[in-house]
Amino acid sequence: MKYQPVIGLETHVELKTESKMFCRCSADYFGQKPNTHTCLVCLGLPGALPVPNKKAIDWCAMIGLALNCEIPLFSKFDRKNYFYPDLPKGYQISQYDEPFGIDGYVDLSASRVSQVASRDSEERKAKSEKRIRIRRVHMEEDTGKLIHELADQRSKIKDQRSSFIDFNRSGVPLVEIVTEPDFDNAADVKEYLQKLQQIVRYLGVSNADMEKGEMRLEPNISLARRDSHVASRNHDKRIANSELPSYKVEIKNINSFRFVEKAINYEIERQAELLEKGETPVQETRGWDERSGKTVSQRTKEEAHDYRYFPEPDIPPIRFAQYQISKIKDQIGELPDQKLKRFQTEYKLTPYDAEILTRELALADYFEEAVRTGKAHNVAPKQIANYIINKKLNIKETAPSELVELILTTAQVISVGSEELRKAIEQVILENPKAVEDYKSGKTQAIGFLIGKVKSLLPPKSSTDKIKEQIEQALK
Fold this sequence. Notes:
Elements: E1 3-14, H1 54-66, E2 74-75, E3 78-81, E4 91-94, E5 101-108, H2 110-117, H3 122-125, E6 130-141, E7 145-150, E8 161-166, E9 173-179, H4 186-203, E10 215-225, H5 229-232, E11 249-251, H6 257-276, E12 284-289, E13 294-300, E14 310-311, E15 318-319, H7 322-330, H8 336-346, H9 351-357, H10 361-375, H11 381-390, H12 400-416, H13 419-431, H14 433-440, H15 446-455, H16 464-474
Parallel strand pairs: 11-12
Antiparallel strand pairs: 1-9, 1-10, 2-15, 3-4, 3-14, 5-6, 6-9, 7-8, 10-11, 12-13
């Protein structure tokens, strides 16, 4: 392909605070009766004044720190002005030029990058990992939700194809994480987003459940010729705005890793076809239509000046002291990449096993508790890891101590399983010829009697399945 994709990402993450961003309404809106979690502030009624949610601001800064951002000591809120039915005030309280986090980064794994490199150029193969720069992490309020459906037959609305607005979501704390245009393929985008979701879940600030709209994905895509200056630059260096393609296409509100990968790949092909014809793709906002497998035009893409940003007059600037930033940083526990490396060194796990066990914080904690319990019984961490991964253990139904007990039982049967088990089976077969004859003549229930006799000669926790298997083999 003669064109180099230039992709940046905007990701919106809803915080799971108890109350909304600028009022005391409950932020637990999902599944609730429409327009029941609202007040004067989140409905944007005249004279209502916003009061910032301190926890939401701290959590936004925490996300920034986890993404290696600098947290400025001075920040402010701004008004982003646009008119849309789901925005009751006619503007959104957001941040423009003084966000809570700037200049961070996320490193993609060396193994994933090498897989992409094997399908790409020799230049990519030489890279050990790829760094995605984070331009900004800023705080804003969510909008209401538009619901498009058929009107109730009892309704007075004549047009049966109607749109309704639920303002329960309006004002929920929303963090936006914006990258530099450092991606050049959809697979890297997917890995970055999975890591981002994992980080915010580890922090405990968001469930980032995409099916509920708690994490929404918006890639910006354009294409540069591969022989251009942009396409040949090292991704660890900044790309000046003047060097970027003259347009970009934004795909809004995607709610799945699979869909974002499909949408980007489709858009790359669509834009390449236009460029081959000598046409420049329109700078616009598009949506992803899963049924057709295509992106569809929604509206012309706005620029920053279209929103007429200006400082929010009802909220004073936010000033951090250095000790406050340090206090927030101290609340950050071990992050996924750190835990992944530690599991490999401390527990001697393979990168594959460590990656599976650290995907979710609850699973990682479960594994470590089982390791602590197993240590007193000489159960190795590798044994515990194998059992969790290979048996696809449901950690909600099995306590760590029960898991160790299962492993000990299995190990006990294996130690019995050769000579001692063989001798016990031989003895039972010799002493119980009628049961053996019944089994061979088709009375398969007789094997239960034989199993019981064998178990009486073995340690009490011996596996019934293992004994049954060996008896069946002996009676063939």
